[in-house]
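pls design
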């Protein structure tokens, strides 16, 4: 039976002629036109990137390689004694488009276990950070420090055929991905925990080992698997995925790319929204003397947040126009495992209260909750109450999609990215108001 890398090679060989044909026979076909609003407004909706790893439909939500999230959770092989699938199986799916068998998934687990060992200097880099540093800054630096390990960089400097770029990128990607949970757990234990376990358990999969290193009991292993899987990819244009792709397009190796992707994820309008949600809910809780407010009390607080010029964290989305299925997956988990959780009840009340208010305010194009509205509450329930840390978990998940994309970018020879900018004056001239 072919391993993941051999299978990927076959898929790449199959795919290359499709891109060649599109370029050769249809290179001049117009896909869309661009409006002034799109140019000024953050390039919303401009179709100008290719990603086969995932696709985001505004009303249906994300599909990974054509599979909806519920299908992904149903079809991927599960870790033994667990409800949730193995993250390694998701990586196989994202790379090849095929659902792995149990044994194909085990092969990837085995390969990744063998790549988990972190060089000593990475621990030193993490330790050198003052304890009041943001965990995302530490994570980014830890990844960056490992750039010297890049197989791509080494082979590029020795001289390598373009056709082969994907191969050392694949090696770098699995090396880095295997180590990210170890880095993440070490950061957590350094900053917050005196009882966390820093050692690894080679008998456990990606999610199971992460929970173990954090010193967390079951079902936190499943929470980790669920969390990494739902955050893995959200098509190509979001800040983190796009940043990773953009950096890699100059043939920077994946250590540069993933460190940059982490920096993009660390903004409150993107990945950091999950910590903002928790901070906001905790403030509300305090305001209400630790009790659940009535609907009208909560409505008043939501309006106060909006009227003070702040966004409601966890609500709205640049592409989605309905409740994020990643929110729904977490909600279903919570209804099953923690229905009486106090913060979950808060979330449920917010779910009732916030969308009609955002609709009434009439600004946000999407009044519904996104993934970040929910994720912190589950972490809090299982004792990960340091909300600054939540985006590190998002980063570990997101790296799986970003790295899969970069491997394919290299395989298909996508060029260095270089869109064109124009001046305000030029835009005025185009619309006929310039001198
Ligand atoms: C995600 C987000 C950045 C998308 O931005 P976007 O594509 O520009 O969103 P929209 O086109 O709907 O924005 C239109 C207006 O509604 C506002 N808006 C959007 N979401 C809002 C929210 N959750 N609360 C209040 N106002 C919001 C925007 O700030 C913008 O206001 P402006 O015209 O004064 O600049 C935005 O919805 C947001 O800030 N959400 C809160 C942060 C968050 O949850 N981020 C995680 C996303 S996964």
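designed seq:
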């Amino acid at each position: 039976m072919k391993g993941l890398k051999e299978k990927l090679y076959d898929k790449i060989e199959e795919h290359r002629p499709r891109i060649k044909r599109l370029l050769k026979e249809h290179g001049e076909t117009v896909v869309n036109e661009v409006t002034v609003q799109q140019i000024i407004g953050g390039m919303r909706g401009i179709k100008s990137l290719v990603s086969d790893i995932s696709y985001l439909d505004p009303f249906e939500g994300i599909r990974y390689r054509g599979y909806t999230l519920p299908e992904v959770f149903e079809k991927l092989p599960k870790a033994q004694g667990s409800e949730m699938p193995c993250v390694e199986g998701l990586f196989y799916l994202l790379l090849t488009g095929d659902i792995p068998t149990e044994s194909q998934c085990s092969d990837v687990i085995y390969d990744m276990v063998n790549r988990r060992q972190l060089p000593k200097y990475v621990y030193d880099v993490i330790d050198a950070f003052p304890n009041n540093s943001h965990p995302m800054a530490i994570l980014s630096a830890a990844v960056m420090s490992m750039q010297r390990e890049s197989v791509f960089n080494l082979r590029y400097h020795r001289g390598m055929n373009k056709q082969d770029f994907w191969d050392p990128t694949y090696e770098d990607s699995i090396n880095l991905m295997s180590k990210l949970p170890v880095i993440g757990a070490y950061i957590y234990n350094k900053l917050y925990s005196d009882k966390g376990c820093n050692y690894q358990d080679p008998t456990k999969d990606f999610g199971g080992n992460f929970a173990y290193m954090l010193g967390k009991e079951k079902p936190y292993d499943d929470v980790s698997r669920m969390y990494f899987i739902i955050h893995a990819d959200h098509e190509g244009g979001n800040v983190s995925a796009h940043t990773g792709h953009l950096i890699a397009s100059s043939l920077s190796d994946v250590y540069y790319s993933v460190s940059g992707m982490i920096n993009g994820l660390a903004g409150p309008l993107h990945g950091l929204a999950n910590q903002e949600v928790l901070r906001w809910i905790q403030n509300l809780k305090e305001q209400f003397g630790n009790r659940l407010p009535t609907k009208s009390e909560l409505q008043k607080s939501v309006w106060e947040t909006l009227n003070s010029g702040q966004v409601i964290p966890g609500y709205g989305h640049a592409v989605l126009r309905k409740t994020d299925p990643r929110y729904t997956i977490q909600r279903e988990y919570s209804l099953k495992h923690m229905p009486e959780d106090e913060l979950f009840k808060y979330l449920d009340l917010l779910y009732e209260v916030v969308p009609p208010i955002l609709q009434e305010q009439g600004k946000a194009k999407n009044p519904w909750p996104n993934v970040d509205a929910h994720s912190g509450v589950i972490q809090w329930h299982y004792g990960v109450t340091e909300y600054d840390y939540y985006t590190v978990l998002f980063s570990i998940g997101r790296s799986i999609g970003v790295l899969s994309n970069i491997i394919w970018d290299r395989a298909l020879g996508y060029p260095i990215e270089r869109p064109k900018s124009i001046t305000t004056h030029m835009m005025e001239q185009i619309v006929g108001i310039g001198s």
